[in-house]
């Protein structure tokens, strides 16, 4: 179990400087990406989280290798994974991707990201909006002109936060036994999970084995234990979380939302790390323009919301596939996976998938990024009509 870094209630003191130019709530992938983008802006940036930076891992922690290099955290890579293998009860296929995944060490990645920031950090549990638009925390009210919610699927600063299981959330659980492998393995096996998939991610001596269900009412612990048994590894070192599978408003009531709090997690794959970086950078650029006097806060809110919504077509296509694949007869699904295994199709589809949040965005200007997002959306529409 993760030991919470917050102090017992009787020992909590008020934060010395509760007012900042920018307040970022949440110090994981999205929050750190926002803070990184504000480095050198001259703004007083306050980053708060209920845990120490890098303390609480909640995912299998794998991302496209080009992203980890682009954002300067390649030192956290545990293992590069160039191939994915898909398994059904009726067969297996192996795809060599046009780019590779890499598993990484979560505490080290967060440390490397924070080293690139000039924000100050405080441990505090954010509880919601306080009086006059402030942010309420267990260490007093916090205030800033620019406020970011990067706290995850709960969307803590919004009036309409999600509550499972009656929300568009998926649930995942995994174990981390010793082990290894060369591929990122994915099982689509309804004897394990009716609506979802299972995985094994090698991480140089560790095997991250888990199950994800698109139906939040379906528990996944028994399936995770069964998968570990099939792979002949012990079910140890549990971790899990909910993750969204629908985009939400990225700006609302004066607050910027990034990462899972804005639904920035691809349906079907459940991938949310790369998109947290991507939208966190986009958010940080809009904030930086406000700090530099290039635009007003309201304009930044509109621009960021429009940028996020501009990806709705790609997210919608992934959600349609999330609903379609569990409905396919298993033999037909196996045949489709085999037909899809031709290298030109693999290159085109996985190239498109990476394009939806491409690592070149790290160095792009704001205008180039907006143009690229529009082009990726158009490409997604064309691809949806051409895939088998």
How far the N terminus sits from the C terminus, by CA atoms, comes to 44 Å
Q: Which CATH architecture of the largest domain?
A: 3-Layer(bba) Sandwich
The major pleated sheet works out as:
9 strands, mixed
The succession of helices and strands, N to C, reads: EHEEHEEHEEEEEEEEEHEEEHHHHHH
Spatial extent as radius of gyration: 21 Å
General form: globular
Could you say which structural class the secondary elements and strand pairing correspond to? alpha/beta
SS strand fraction = 25-35%
| CATH structural fold name of the largest domain | FAD/NAD(P)-binding domain
Give a count of the beta strands, DSSP E runs of length 2 or more. 17
The overall pLDDT, averaged over residues, is 92
Describe this structure in words.
The structure is a single chain. The chain is of the alpha/beta class. Helices cover 32% and strands 26% of the residues. It has 10 helices and 17 strands. The strands form 2 sheets. Strands 3, 4, 5, 10, 11, 12, 13, 14 and 15 form a 9-stranded mixed sheet that branches. Strands 1, 2, 6, 7, 8, 9, 16 and 17 form an 8-stranded mixed sheet that branches. β13 and β14 form a beta hairpin. α1 packs parallel to α5 and α7 (312-324) packs parallel to α10 (366-386). The chain starts with 18 loop residues before the first strand and ends with a helix. The model is unreliable at 372-388 (pLDDT under 50).
């Amino acid at each position: 179990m993760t030991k919470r870094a917050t102090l017992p209630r009787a020992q909590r003191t008020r934060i010395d400087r509760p007012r900042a130019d920018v307040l970022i709530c949440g110090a994981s992938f999205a929050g750190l990406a926002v803070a990184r983008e504000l480095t050198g802006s001259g703004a007083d940036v306050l980053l708060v989280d209920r845990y120490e930076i890098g303390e609480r891992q909640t995912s299998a922690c794998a991302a496209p290798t080009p992203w980890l290099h682009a954002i300067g955290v390649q030192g956290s890579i545990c293992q590069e994974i160039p191939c994915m293998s898909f398994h059904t009860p009726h067969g297996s296929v192996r795809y060599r991707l046009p780019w590779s995944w890499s598993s990484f060490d979560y505490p080290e990645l967060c440390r490397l990201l924070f080293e690139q920031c000039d924000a100050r950090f405080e441990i505090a549990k954010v509880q919601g909006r306080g009086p006059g638009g402030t942010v309420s925390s267990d260490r007093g009210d916090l205030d800033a002109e620019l406020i970011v919610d990067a706290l995850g699927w709960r969307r803590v600063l919004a009036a309409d936060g999600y509550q499972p299981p009656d929300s568009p959330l998926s649930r995942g659980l995994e174990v981390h036994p010793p082990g290894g492998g060369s591929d990122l393995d994915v099982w689509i096996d309804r004897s394990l999970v009716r609506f979802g998939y299972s995985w094994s991610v090698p991480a140089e001596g560790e095997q991250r084995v888990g199950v994800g269900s698109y139906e939040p009412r379906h528990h996944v612990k028994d399936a995770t234990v069964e998968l570990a048994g099939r792979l002949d590894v012990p079910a140890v070192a549990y971790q899990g979380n909910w993750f969204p599978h629908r985009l939400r408003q990225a700006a609302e009531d004066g607050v910027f939302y990034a990462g899972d709090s804005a639904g920035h997690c691809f349906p079907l794959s459940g991938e949310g790390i790369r998109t947290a970086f991507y939208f966190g950078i986009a958010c940080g650029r809009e904030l930086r323009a406000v700090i530099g006097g290039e635009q007003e806060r309201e304009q930044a809110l509109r621009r960021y919301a429009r940028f996020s919504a501009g990806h709705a077509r790609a997210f919608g296509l992934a959600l349609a596939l999330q609903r379609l694949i569990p409905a396919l007869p298993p033999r037909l699904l196996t045949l489709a996976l085999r037909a899809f295994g031709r290298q030109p199709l693999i290159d085109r589809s996985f190239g498109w998938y990476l394009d939806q949040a491409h690592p070149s965005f790290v160095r792009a200007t704001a205008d180039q990024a907006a143009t690229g997002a529009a082009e990726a959306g158009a490409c997604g529409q064309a691809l949806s009509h051409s895939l088998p």
